[in-house]
Amino acid sequence: MKCQKYKGYNLYFFQDKYEKILEKILNKEYLTIEELKVTKRSYIAVIEIDEKKYVIKESRNEYRLLQRKILTLFKRGEVVNTLENIHRLREEYGIKEYGDIFGGINRRKYGMIDYNLLLMEYVGKEIFPETLDKMMVLMKKIHSLGYYHGDFNPSNFIVTESGNLKIVDTQGKKMTFGNYRAHYDMLTMKMDSFPEMEYPYKKNIYYYLALFMKEFKKNKYVEEFKRVKNRLRDKRRK
């Protein structure tokens, strides 16, 4: 992966042609086709540069939340990690179903990240899968390689106009605590989207830990606490 400085920003990419595209994004030399998500936590939009469409994403929580911003003093940041992880999964492991990530941008102030952006493949019109089959096969393959999604639900799998399945909205992280994350992925799909699905893995200590965390987060008092906390946090940042 290459890194170049430009106007105080760090540009990350594997192929040289994306350096100029990242510069054009910083210079606002693009057309916004559609804003897909605009919140305090993230910004996602379809843009066009030189008659080609891309998706850009800012993960604003990385520098919006004080505790996470401080941690970036000691970390490379989401842009670098995601770019490297997805590149490895696509190129080394051959999982081309991952939506490609072409490059990224971040900026640091006083050693902490205060801006980030990912330049991603535009996979076409979003058509969410209606059946589990292909998603389950693909996710089990990814788990077998020691990686996980982090939010395994139908909205993060897109069926393109050509009929191919694409994985989106993931950092492609590696599992480090047994297969806890594999169980958490599967429980997310089962509990949130497909309660009738047959559970694919043997239930071990990591399964019960993941189940406890899922049920804990779904507790109405915990959910209300999170809503209040987020509301107060957003109010303080206005």
Gyration radius, rounded: 19 Å
Major beta sheet, specifics? 7 strands, antiparallel
Average pLDDT number: 91
Low-confidence stretches: none
Note the run of SSEs as H and E: EEHEEEHHHEEHEEHHH
Assign the CATH topology of the largest domain. Phosphorylase Kinase, domain 1
Q: Quick one: overall form?
A: globular
The end-to-end distance, rounded to whole angstroms, is 37 Å
Task: List how many beta strands DSSP finds.
Answer: 9
Percent range for β-strand residues: 15-25%
Helix content: 25-40%
Instruction: Compute the number of structural domains.
Output: 2
- The CATH class name of the largest domain reads Alpha Beta
Annotation field: number of helices: 8
Order of neighbouring strands in the sheet with most strands: 1-2-6-7-5-4-3
Provide the CATH architecture of the largest domain.
2-Layer Sandwich
Based on secondary structure, the structural category is alpha+beta
